[in-house]
């Protein structure tokens, strides 16, 4: 068994996680309940604790080395009691929407409109090292009302806990992305979740750029905070474009936190500034570096761009430049050196034609189709490797191929770890959710575990 798991880890160093996390009681998924010893709601109103107590995180990780069977999945299940509490509020919310009193909303009308409330969930962030999963859970009325309430749900593997947080602090709106960025602390092994937002006071149309951060086991009310969130100002040291887009790719690397708009450029700050204890008047300074003018676009081409970890102190921008003839498609990699003293300017690291990718050693032997790739992505653990998806050769076939290309040495690209996926992963996010195969198997490295080992 140990040998087979080691072999699987060698060929599948990471799993591509389905970012949908919806529970389906009629499916044939082999879902297993994730260990959970505590559930706590932070600043989620009078029903918060009841909500989190009624939520369960399930996982189907498709054990073994079988990508063909599908992609691993998570699901969040809510008890009927929790859904029932939201359904009780539907008549009152309908009356408020329509301007009617409760007496005007009779049983016949409710039969037509319905009171059924469902739970939807999606994966927002994964951090294998910290052992943390962050999901968005939303309760929504099937017909008239839409979303009733949304929260962030945080699963911490080390403490086997679920934490429920408000989706965004009161009087704030998320900016750049609605997914919180997980920032690891240096030294204490802890972490914080960080949201970029705009805080709008009454009659203030422009709002104030802020950062919202939450740290596990922090007091539910903190100085300068709203509920569990600590609010701090952010200041831009360099000019920002008028439209720094929504759905930015957020990541951390080498002590810096990044928000990448794939149409305009990248915004970054020091991780230490995000998690250091400061009074709420101190602003976190951000720096923006624009993409070269020829790569700035109005709208994002569907899944043809990515930013992420490069080599050394660099961040890479990967773009697939399409042409009328598929064989003329080019993969371009630009590099931004963030080392001390380096000029903040994008430099061309690599230009790779699709014909040269098809001609890479091992491409044909791996049974890979000569198709145009899409969805590039980068991961910190494989610095210098860019990953791409390739459609199946048969148009009506499901799934796709995953290939990695090592371009550390731009003069000698190498094909690495080609895999065939049973279905196409990640739907909602611009970047994939990646999970270590042994994420839920790792022994907690806490004092109790160490004491048990010594007995």
Number of strands: 28
Mean pLDDT: 81
Basic shape:
globular
Rounded radius of gyration (Å): 24 Å
Strand content: 35-45%
Q: Which secondary-structure class do the elements indicate?
A: mainly beta
- For the record, give the distance between the C-alpha atoms at the N and C termini, rounded to a whole number: 26 Å
User: Percent of residues in helical segments?
Assistant: 10-25%
Helix count equals: 7
Please describe the biggest sheet, giving its number of strands, its sense, and whether it closes into a barrel. 10 strands, mixed
**Unreliable sequence segments:** 1-10, 219-225, 443-455
Question: Could you explain how this protein is built, in words?
Answer:
The protein is mostly beta strands and 455 residues long. It contains 7 helices and 28 strands. It has helices at residues 2-11, 48-53, 80-98, 107-113, 271-275, 354-358, 447-454, and strands at 15-17, 32-33, 38-41, 55-60, 73-78, 117-127, 132-141, 146-156, 161-166, 172-174, 181-184, 191-199, 208-214, 225-226, 229-236, 249-253, 256-261, 265-270, 284-290, 305-309, 314-321, 330-337, 346-353, 374-378, 385-391, 400-406, 414-421, 433-435. Strands 10, 11, 12, 13, 14, 15, 16, 17, 18 and 19 form a 10-stranded mixed β-sheet that branches. The protein has a 5-stranded mixed β-sheet with strand order 3-9-8-7-6. A 4-stranded antiparallel β-sheet has the order 20-21-22-23. It is globular, with a radius of gyration of 24 Å. The model is unreliable at 1-10, 219-225 and 443-455 (pLDDT under 50).
């Amino acid at each position: 068994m140990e040998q087979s798991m080691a072999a699987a880890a060698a060929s599948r160093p990471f799993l591509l996680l389905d970012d949908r996390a919806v529970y389906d009681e009629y499916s044939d998924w082999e879902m297993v309940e994730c260990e959970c010893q505590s559930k706590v709601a932070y600043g989620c109103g009078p029903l918060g604790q009841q909500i989190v107590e009624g939520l369960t995180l399930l996982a189907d990780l498709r054990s073994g080395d079988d990508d063909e069977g599908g992609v691993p999945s998570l699901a969040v299940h809510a008890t009927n009691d929790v859904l029932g509490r939201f359904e009780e509020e539907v008549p009152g919310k309908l009356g408020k929407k329509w301007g009617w009193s409760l007496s005007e909303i009779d049983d016949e009308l409710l039969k037509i409109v319905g009171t059924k409330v469902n739970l939807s969930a999606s994966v927002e962030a994964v951090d294998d090292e910290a052992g943390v999963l962050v999901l968005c859970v939303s309760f929504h009325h099937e017909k008239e009302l839409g979303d009733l309430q949304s929260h962030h749900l945080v699963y911490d593997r080390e403490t086997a806990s679920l934490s429920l947080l408000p989706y965004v602090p009161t009087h704030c709106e998320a900016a750049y992305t609605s997914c919180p960025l997980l920032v690891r602390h240096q030294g204490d092994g802890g972490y914080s979740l960080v949201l970029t937002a705009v805080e709008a006071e009454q009659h203030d149309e422009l709002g104030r750029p802020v950062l919202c951060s939450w740290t596990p086991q922090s007091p539910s009310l903190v100085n300068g905070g709203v509920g569990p969130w600590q609010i701090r100002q952010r200041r831009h040291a360099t000019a920002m474009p008028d439209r720094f887009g929504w759905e930015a790719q957020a990541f951390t690397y080498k002590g810096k936190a990044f928000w990448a708009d794939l149409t305009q450029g990248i915004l970054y700050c020091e991780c230490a500034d995000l998690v250091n204890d400061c009074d709420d008047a101190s602003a976190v300074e951000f720096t923006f570096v624009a993409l070269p003018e020829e790569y700035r676009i109005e709208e994002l081409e569907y899944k043809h761009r990515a930013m992420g970890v490069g080599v050394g102190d660099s961040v890479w921008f990967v773009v697939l430049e399409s042409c009328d003839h598929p064989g003329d498609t080019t993969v371009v990699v630009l590099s931004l050196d963030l080392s001390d003293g380096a000029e903040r300017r994008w430099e061309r690291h690599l230009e790779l034609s699709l014909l040269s990718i098809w001609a890479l050693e091992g491409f044909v032997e791996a049974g890979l189709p000569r198709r145009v790739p899409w969805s590039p992505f980068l991961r910190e653990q494989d610095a210098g490797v860019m990953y791409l998806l390739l459609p199946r050769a048969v148009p009506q076939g499901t799934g796709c191929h995953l290939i990695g290309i090592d371009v550390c040495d731009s003069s000698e690209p190498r094909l690495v770890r080609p895999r065939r996926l049973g279905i196409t992963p990640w739907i909602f996010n611009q970047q994939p959710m990646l999970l270590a195969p042994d994420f839920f198997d790792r022994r907690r490295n806490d004092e109790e575990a160490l004491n048990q080992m010594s007995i």
